[in-house]
Amino acid sequence: MSQSWSTTGQQSLRKGVSLRPGNPFQSLRPELWTQPLTPWQLQYIQELSSYRLQRMPVQYILGEWDFQGLSLKMVPPVFIPRPETEELVEWVLEEVTQRSRVVRAQGGPLILEVGCGSGAISLSLLSKLPQSQVIAVDKGEAAICLANENAHRLQLQDRIRIIPLDVTLEDSWAHLLPWGPVDLIVSNPPYVFHRDMEQLAPEILSYEDPVALDGGEEGMDIISHILALAPRLLKDSGSIFLEVDPRHPELVGSWLQSRPDLFLDLVTVRRDFCGRPRFLHIQRSRPQRGCPADAWPVPQPPRVAG
Length: 306
What we know:
Layout: H1 2-14, H2 39-53, H3 58-62, E1 64-67, E2 70-73, H4 83-97, E3 110-114, H5 120-128, E4 133-138, H6 141-153, E5 160-164, E6 182-187, H7 202-207, H8 221-233, E7 234-243, H9 248-257, E8 264-271, E9 277-284, E10 303-305
Parallel strand pairs: 3-4, 3-6, 4-5, 6-7, 8-10
Antiparallel strand pairs: 1-2, 7-9, 8-9
Helix pairs in contact: 4-5
Catalytic activity: L-glutaminyl-[peptide chain release factor] + S-adenosyl-L-methionine = N(5)-methyl-L-glutaminyl-[peptide chain release factor] + S-adenosyl-L-homocysteine + H(+)
Domain Methyltransferase small: 111-197
Protein name: peptide chain release factor N(5)-glutamine methyltransferase
């Protein structure tokens, strides 16, 4: 159903009824406000309504969605980016602009995104950081295809490498070495506690890929792999930015304390717009021989930002 809807929906949108979030009713020409709907338009609205009554997410029904001002194509079962993730992007942008000097000779950071999905995080960072470069990885074929399509739609394909990769596999980091070391690792990984999966809304359970959501018993399965991978790929004092469950800051802090060999420090915990501890800034605390130093500040004791 996902492929047939994607094709039909995109064709219908091109016929003249634009329902994109970036085109609200206020943008309609005044003469259309009172113009009766055609039989085709009525049929199309009924078709859209029937999909929604089946609990299909609006993002999949429309076939596209706005994220950080970018219009991204959306296709099931690729994970739909949430508003909280826009906050993660904003935080990364704040940190980059506050740096005391440029990271690379080219003037922008080299960023690794783990679990790129539709490409929302990577492409929004590229659009706001004109001299940055991104390596985006995902183990899902549908995600890789969609991220590539979105990169071309936005004409950002020349600054991003989208690579099929499962970070849980042994020595997966070796496949990324030719493009590293990186300044930043950013991820909105699967972090839902396995026992909480059945409580998710039907829109999520029936349409989105559970692999992009289920983080294992304590939601830490992919998070721990990212942290174990990071020291091999980060530059000196490089940073990791993660979106997590509100229960994770304490769990991640304890996990890092149990792995002093990684030389990673939890620097900051930041709250989302609902006041929940949602985002983590983790920093490499020990230089790695042979990797050029960058300009991230010296790690400070963990703090919670509002």
